[in-house]
Amino acid sequence: MATKIGALKLNNPVILASGIMDEDSGSMKRIYNNGAGAIVTKSIGLKTREGYPNPTFVDLDCGILNAMGLPNPGIENFKDEIVEIKKDKIPVIGSIFGSNSKEFLILAKKMQEFGADAIELNMSCPHAKGYGLELGSDPKIVEDITLKVKKEIKIPVFVKISPNLMNISEIAKAAEDGKADAIVAINTVKAMKIDIDLKRPVLANKIGGYSGKAIKPIGVRCVYDIAQNVKIPIIGVGGITSGEDAIEYIMAGATALQVGTGLYNRGINIFGKINKEIIDWMKKNKIEKITDLIGVANIWIIQKLSKSKK
Ligand SMILES: Cc1cc2nc3c(=O)[nH]c(=O)nc-3n(C[C@H](O)[C@H](O)[C@H](O)COP(=O)(O)O)c2cc1C
Q1: Which of 62, 75, 127, 161 could join 67 via S-S bond, C-beta 3.0 to 4.6 A?
Q2: Neighbour-count burial for 241-276, b at 16+ CB within 10 Å, e otherwise
């Protein structure tokens, strides 16, 4: 199950997604010790940020709706958490958000200095004004930020993109043109819940991001589309709660996976469970290497491979 994402080598491909139990070293260690291949940190910005007032989180059928507003301690206050988990040699991907390339570069340099093994540029938060999707929907901005970070950072750089776009493949290509080492897809899906008794949206921010089982088909479609447009690895995320879900993403074109909301469904040891389910499925279907499954359901990739063999 060993996996390579660019230069990043992991024991297994099932990674903790940004934003779930990843703000302190204690919970990140627990998750790694329960079978995760790596940990992505909560997205960290330049300064301490409180996030939105409550309610920020609502449990819905088949998923979770949240608008936390990117609460985080700020990069300087996050140093100790990274240093602490690196003492145990845990692979850690530092997620960062900024409002321009200068901010992204400062944050990426700090994460690298603290010991992160890779950087994830969050350009896809669906509800943070001035950040996220507002940058990540413009291919020129995505390419520019990625290029500027890549130019000065030695560790691999991933770009996390949003499903809330008509031009998702174009955005992924822009990240590849900016020399990104991998694409992470998808962030949450823009959504809303209304309380019909109060006649008001439930979230204080009104609009939030939907995650969990319900968004898996959206994520799989996004990975499938992106795989047709880029050559760099794709990390699939969105609604994965089982080994079969993970295999679907891999067959669409993903090299590795991230799991977030699934922790609420199957507990902290979901990572070990998913890894075991992938291995069991591979044994049953006589598949030796997980890499043999990447993109096998993707018609375009199959056509490209068969042409190159001729
Ligand atoms: C409570 C919560 C907080 C999140 N915070 C972040 C974040 O800080 N940065 C980020 O890139 N994604 C964030 N996400 C999105 C997840 O990393 C992931 O892309 C999304 O939830 C889809 O995966 P899932 O269905 O496995 O949860 C958050 C998701 C949830 C549910």
Answers
A1: 127
A2: bbbebbbbbbbbbbbbbbbbbbbebeebebbebbbe
pLDDT digits (tens, 9 = 90+) for 159-216: 999 999 999 999 999 999 999 999 999 999 999 999 999 999 999 999 999 999 999 9
Please name the helix (run of DSSP H) or strand (run of DSSP E) that holds residue 276, with its range, or none: helix 270-284
b/e sequence 133-150, b meaning 16+ C-beta within 10 Å: bebbbbbebbbbbbbbbb
141: tokens are: 């901005």
Cα(286) to centroid(ligand 1), Å: 34
Closest CA to 188 of 207, 213, 163: 163
Residue nearest to atom 22 of ligand 1 (CA): 238
List alpha helices for 51-195, DSSP H. Answer: 75-86, 101-114, 133-136, 139-152, 168-177
C-beta neighbour count of 76 within 10 angstroms: 13
Identify the residue whose C-alpha is closest to ligand 1 atom 5: 19
